[in-house]
């Protein structure tokens, strides 16, 4: 009998959830940035291996909300945990030991789904230091960079998946439309090209996505909160927006395996992170 189910990748911000998802599915799906809180909407990646199909969900980090966008991200993360059939609770090995997931998520009771504690970033800990940190029997240390521990992690997760037919074609790696990934890769490029706190004020909306001919035409709008931010994103002589667009286009072309014409525009959407109608328009979960 085959096994299939949803696996939540859960934990605090910047513990390596997105990097691990990409390593597990073998494709760059979730945006990765050194700054925390880059994941705002759960990203689903699929891996079918032998008799098991894993439906991985990279959730936003479990944070202390400061404004409405944060509250939407936290609600999305808690919903992923609640809906999961297995939970991979991520915590850096450099910060051993991990607190309980219920404590981090501020849950009244432990999640109903079986949980595997996954210590990430094992490559940053020396073997001597690691030997001083004996892991509990239900915990696994992994490195998404060196792939250390990934096979053991998959085996542990597989053992906890319910018996079920596959939900998706074994060749599929994602469930969300390409429009979604195009917007995410533009945001990822913003995290790479922009500095300080500006990437947190950036949102992206795809106005048009024309397939069927090459290059694929994508018209996208980058939203910022203030006029001064718009000028920074565009840059002197348009240099910043050109560099951002080139980086984003390369990422989209890699996923599509097609040439892309990316038509980028910058607009001001005042205080969108704190404005519920704007959050809803941009696809972020609201009450």
Question: What distinguishing features does this structure have?
Answer:
9 strands; Rossmann fold; 2 domains; GMP Synthetase, Chain A, domain 3; 287 residues; single chain; alpha/beta; 6-stranded mixed sheet
Structural summary, described in words:
The protein has 287 residues and is α/β, with parallel strands linked by helices. It folds into 2 domains: 3-160, Rossmann fold (3-Layer(aba) Sandwich); 178-281, K homology (KH) domain (GMP Synthetase, Chain A, domain 3), CATH 3.30.300. It contains 9 helices and 9 strands. It has helices at 17-25, 68-83, 101-104, 127-131, 150-160, 178-193, 227-234, 239-256, 276-281, and strands at 3-10, 43-49, 52-58, 86-92, 115-120, 139-141, 203-210, 216-224, 260-268. A 6-stranded mixed beta sheet has the order 2-3-1-4-5-6, with helices on both faces. It starts with a strand and ends in a 6-residue tail after the last helix. The model has no long low-confidence stretch (mean pLDDT 95).
